[in-house]
Design goal:
Elements (H helix, E strand, L loop, with lengths): L3 H19 L2 H6 L6 H32 L3 H23 L7 H22 L2
Helix pairs in contact: 1-3, 1-5, 3-4, 4-5
């Protein structure tokens, strides 16, 4: 039986970080200085997409945990969500981690922590 508390914690970290991603969007875009309107739109779109993706991952992990934490579809969601989080962690490590802004440096750790908690919650309890 999966440890639902660990699964919910992994989902919550992901979901909360996704919501937190959305709030500074305007200031992040302004931080790029004087760039074209097209580039501002691209940065805004990408920033919002990452936040929504994180919210979705946290929401779907929590949702399947609540509905039925022990079936093949749920297992697929746990594994695929963890893999996406690990890919995001690697991308963040080589990009955002190099930025001199502390929250960017948290991304690889938070993504990895969430992925590990989801996998531990499913496989080791």
């Amino acid at each position: 039986m999966p440890n639902q508390i660990v699964l919910y914690i992994g989902a919550a970290i992901t979901l909360i970080w996704g919501v937190a991603h959305l709030f500074p969007t305007v200031s992040v875009v302004k931080g790029f200085g004087d760039i074209t309107a097209g580039n501002k739109n691209i940065i805004t779109m990408e920033w919002i997409i990452e936040g929504i993706a994180l919210i979705f991952i946290g929401f779907i992990v929590a949702g399947v945990t609540y509905i039925d934490a022990e079936n093949k579809i749920t297992e697929f969601i746990y594994i695929s969500s963890s893999l996406v989080l690990l890919v995001l962690a690697i991308v963040s490590l080589f990009t955002g981690f190099k930025v001199d802004f502390f929250p960017f440096k948290l991304c690889p750790f938070l993504f990895t922590l969430s992925a590990v908690l989801i996998l531990i919650g499913y496989y080791f309890f």
